[in-house]
Every structure is written in C-alpha cells, then in structure tokens.
Amino acid sequence: MEAFFSLLNGMALALAWPSVLYSIGGVTLGMMVGVLPGVGPMAAIALILPVTFHIAPTDALIMLAGVYYGAQYGGSITSILLNLPGTASSAVVCLDGHPMAQRGRAGAALFITTFGSFIGSNLAIVLLVIFAEPLARVALQFQPADYFSMMLMGLIAAATLSEGSVAKGIIMVLFGLILGMVGADVNTGAQRFTFGFTDLWNGISIVAVAMGFFGVTEVIRNLVTGGERDASVYSVTWRTLLPTKQEMRDSTMPIARGSLIGMAFGLLPGTGTSISSFVAYLAEKKISRHPEKFGHGTVEGMASSEAANNATAQSAFIPTLSLGIPADGVMALLLAAMMIHGIQPGPRFLTENPDVFWGLIGSFVIGNLFLVILNLPLIGIWVKFLSVPYRFLAPVVILLIAIGVYSIQSSTSDIFFVIGFGIAGYVLSRLGFQAAPLLLGLVLGPMVEENLRRALLITRGDYMVFLERPISLSFLILTALLILSSVWTPWKRFKKKAEA
Amino acid sequence: MSKEAIQTAGFVGKDNLVQRLFLTSDSVGGWISVAIGCVSLAQGLALGLGTLRRLGSGGFPFGIGVLLIGLGALLIVGSLRRGGATASIPIKVSSVLILAALASFAVLLPLFGMIPAAIVLMLLVSVAVTGRLGLGDIIFSLASSVAAVLIFINGLGLALPAIRWPL
Question: Which residue among A167, A333, A467, B63 is least packed, with the fewest CB closer than 10 Å?
C-alpha cells in the first residue's frame, strides 16, 4: 500500500510542469527513432545525453528513459508497414505483422501491437513498484564481496545472453573494462592506459564511446550495406484500426504470457528486449494449436512478442535502479547519466533520492499513456515520417554527435576519440562482436575493480570470502550456470529456429 | 562462403590453414583480442601487480590481459578446427567521408566557430550519402547550422562563438 502511495506521489511529481514536457519529449523522440530503421534507441540516448546535463536529474532520467521505452512502441510500426524492423526488438513483428498489412489489416496489426505494448509495460510497472524497494533493502546488506560477485554475474550475463558468440561477448566486456580503467587509478593515483596523452588523464567519456560505437558505426554500416528503403508504405485509415472480435480474443492470452516472459527477462541482468521478444514469439508458436499459421499473419506471436519487449524495457529498470546493475546497454547509459548528475546508483539510490525514483516511475505511467495516443490516432504522421530521406537524416545525426560530444568537456579531442571508436565499432561489428557488452563493461568496470580490491583488503587477501558469503556464493553459482548453459547453447538453437 | 561449406571442405590444406588462421571473422577477432590482451598485460606488469592482499594498480589490467589472450586463442583455435566465414570489412569512400566530416568539425570549430564547422560537416555527410551535392543539401545545412546555434549556444549556453575569423 505504501508503494502505491509512493507511486501516486511520483505521478504527481512527473506531472509537474517541466517534467511532463521532458517525458512527452522523450517518448516522442523514442517513437521517432523507433520508427526510423537504422537509428536505434541506443544512438538516440547517446545523442541527447549531453543535452540532459543541463537539466534537473529527475527530468534528465525521465527523458532518457522515455526514449528507451518509446522506441519499443515505434519499432513495430516500421515492421508492420515496411517489413523492416525499426528496432532490433521488433524484428519478429515483421513475421506476422507485414503479412497482415499485405492483407489490408495493417491497422488491426498496429492496434494489437500497441495494445500489447501498453499492457506489457503496465504489468511490468506494477512489478517495478512492488519489487524495487524490497530488493534494494536486501541489497543494502551486501558487502564488497557480494557486489563483486553480483557485478561479475551481470557482466557474464551480458556476454552470454547477448546475440552471437559467447567468447566474443566476454571479449567485448573485457575491452569495456579496459576502457573503464583509462586514467588515474582511484586507489593509487597511478595513470593507466594513458600512454602519455594528457587528454586521457580524466578517463574516457562514456558518451564518446557510445556515440562512436552506436552512432557513427550505425551510419557507416547503413552506408556500406546501403539499399534504399521500399517507398511503398501501406496506408492506414481510422476504420481499419479496429481489430475483429476474433483477433482480440486470439491476442488476449498471448499478451498476458508475453508480458510474463518479458518481465522475467527484464529482471535478468545482461539480457535485452530483442531476446525476450524472440523467446515470447517462439513460446507462443510452441503452444499454439496451429503453429503452421505463424509467419502468415496471425496475431498471437505478434501480440506476445510486443508485450514481451515492452515488459522487458520496463522491468529492466528493477535491477538497474535497485541494485545498480544495468540490464543492457541502454541501462548502462542511464546509469552513466545518473553518475554524471551526481547520483550514485545502487541500493542507496532509493532511500537517498526517493523523489527521483518515484518521479521516474510515475513518468512511466504517463509516458505509456501518451505513447498510446501518439501511436494510434497520430499514425498518419508516422507513416509520413517514414519517408524522410536518409540524406537529410544522416547529416543531422552526425552533427548532433559532433556537437554533443564536444559539449561534454569542450574538447575537440573527444571528437577524435569518437572517430576512433566509430572505426573500432565498425570493424568489430563486421567481425561479429556486439557493442552492448562493451558498454556494460565500461560502466561496471570501475565498480567491479573497486569492490574486488575492497573485499580483499577487508579479508586480508582471503579469496575464500567470495565462496563463504552466501549471497556472493549464490551469484557465483548463477554465473557458473550461465557459462555452462552457454556452452550448451539453448539460446542459439532458439534463435536458429526463429530465423528458419 | 558459408560456415557449412567450409566445414564440409574436409582436409586442412596449406591455403586453407592460412585462411583459417588469419582470414576468418573468428581468427581476426581472436588476434585483435590477443593483441589488446598483450597491451593490457604489459601495462599491468609495468604498473606493478601488488600483493594478493592489496592488489596494485596493475593487478586488474594484468588479469584482464590474461583473459583476453586466452579467449582470443580460443577463437583462433576454434577457427583452425572448424573454419568459418571469411572476415569482410568493406571500406567505402562514403564511410571515410563520414569520419572526415567529424574530423573537419573538430578542426574548424575552434578556428571559425559553430556555423562554418557545422555547414562543412553536413555537406560532407550529404556527399557521403548521395554521392553529389545539390542545392537542397546546401540550404538544409545552412538552416541546420543556424538551428544548432539557436539550440546549443543560445538555448543551452554552450560557450562557443557562432562564427569567428581567426586572422
């Protein structure tokens, strides 16, 4: 009950004058990048991160979070109308959404995905309201050894559960850890990985890394793989928006199941929205009485996967806000934003900044309501938006990257870092390396090292402390299970099946 | 060539060995990992590992270096045994232009201010995307650079001149 009142209080905060504007601005921007193929929420958040340095921390988080969950709504529009995933997590919607559009049912498909997204998000918000505070209270008992093991699990989860090879995922995490070490060592003051460059003494800005690896890399990749977008967008009229009774009935249970799957994935650090939407789709296909119809325009898989990715996007805030462990790359950026604003993420965040926490949650409720309005009645605008040519979009994106990264420290050398990270990101992505684990390593790296050293200092170098403390041991066992399960690779089989 | 096609190719000939050792996505990635691992390891040793009880500044980089070398070797060995898709990193003039656009911005900004730097950046990116420069692109870059000044310098108070002449 107390949590409920806190939520109401948070909603009141989020409805206050500037906050509500930032929330609406964030979700609208999120919708935009969700709709546009080739610009993901990650790049968008990296782009506006420097802008948010100038506003209050609560508003900054509200806006950044809005971009993230807003993009989950927008992505399905492009999937349905163009058969191109607007975001990676809405790729599965193409399978059934586009065939529906070809049959003239695009409107109904949009309605169902929006409805599924809304339900998935709200169920996850309820979970967030109920669980975040108790979880943080438990986490207050954590000692450095427990923190170390928990973060280790987060990093390994990021590496093993992300797409692609496990070894490559772990390598990216380690690259991230190295980037996180650049600059002065907090314990001894020794300069690490600076190689005599004074520009590196203060460390590498996460914004430069994110913009290089996500912004620049994405633009280069789009230019290289190229291919003009199919210009024929299906028209959507008001009348076709309403689904039939049968379609509604068919999508109710899948939405509920998808939400549950999505919430579970959000709680797991290191997973993301793309995996949860895939798994929800496959689960639905598995239990369906007519699996052969999947991929030909049935609503079940689509409803389930959309509910799942939105539920994941919201419940991912639980580990991020109450433990300080980012669930995916976007959450890592949000954590970085908090730190820049002087808020230390972790279990103390809730007790020390209750207004920020509940204001943020309150904004989720408002943002999701607004997204439904943005999505359905304003669908015509998004259809038009899809025809913005890339020759106008790309210059704006690159200009925002340049100004944004310069504005952080008023240093042009950061722009050269972005160029370097852009090249590295492009080469690594061509070799099958995912960038998200690197970002997690970069954000968590300094904390992992700090807690490892502190734990060893307290126990006078006794490494058994990691096995003797029950909390730490549980995390280590989970980490071991993650590694074992990745050797067994059920996820890969899941994915192969989905792609087949 | 697909993974399966290489796998069914059978024996490992001399050419095949070079291919598997140096040219697949996995092996190239593995070598990069080994190289960066070596740098990290050297950095760790140079800084001092410290003791088990009190890890020195080099302890963590050393450990990460060891892991990177190990995992890189794993990728290379995996590629040797199973082969894999050939690494392809196509480089186009357009990608170089994007990087040049960013670099030009970094050089021009302190010298001439925001508007000229932004215009040059946007025109270079436009050329990268379309391969030519139209009047529309020029007007668009002009308008965007003014918008950037209004948003970032007037709106957000970024301490930068909109336009200046260094001479």
Answer: A467
d(CA B52, CA B40): 19
For residues A254 and A307, the answer to whether their CB atoms sit within 8 Å is: yes
User: Would you list the DSSP string of A161-184?
Assistant: HSSS-HHHHHHHHHHHHHHHH-EE
CA A353, CA A58: separation in Å to the nearest integer? 10
Domain residue extents for chain B: 3-82, 93-155
Which pLDDT does position B5 carry in this prediction?
46
Those of residues 72-131 in B touching chain A at CB distance below 8 A are 72, 74-75, 78, 87-90, 92, 94-95, 98-99, 101-103, 105-107, 109-110, 114, 117-118, 121-123, 125-126, 128-130
Instruction: Identify the weakest region by mean pLDDT among A26-40, A154-168, A199-213, A345-359.
Output: A154-168
Which one of B56, B72, B144 has the shortest CB-CB distance to A396?
B144
Cα A316 off chain centre by: 8
Find the residue in B nearest to A172 (Cα).
Answer: B33
B64 touching A (Cβ < 8 Å): yes
Q: What percent of chain B has pLDDT over 90?
A: 54
The stretch A151-165 carries a mean pLDDT of 79
* Residue A80 CB-half CA count within 13 A: 35
CA distance B20 to A283: 37
Residue A184 backbone dihedrals phi, psi, to 5 degrees: -75, 135
Which tens digit of pLDDT belongs to each residue from B50-101? Answer: 887 778 889 999 999 999 999 999 999 999 988 888 888 888 899 999 999 9
- Hey, what's the torsion of the CAs at A459, A464, A470, A476, to 10 degrees? 120
Structure tokens at A351: 């007790």
pLDDT tens-digit readout, A358-384: 999 999 999 999 999 888 888 888 877
CB environment A382-395: b (16+ within 10 A), e (fewer): bbebbeeebbbbbb
Q: What is the pLDDT of residue A161?
A: 67
- Predicted pLDDT at A232: 54
A330-to-A69, A91, B57 alpha-carbon distances in Å: 10, 18, 29
Say if CB A170 and CB A438 are below 8 A apart: no
Q: Give the ipTM of the model, two decimals please.
A: 0.89
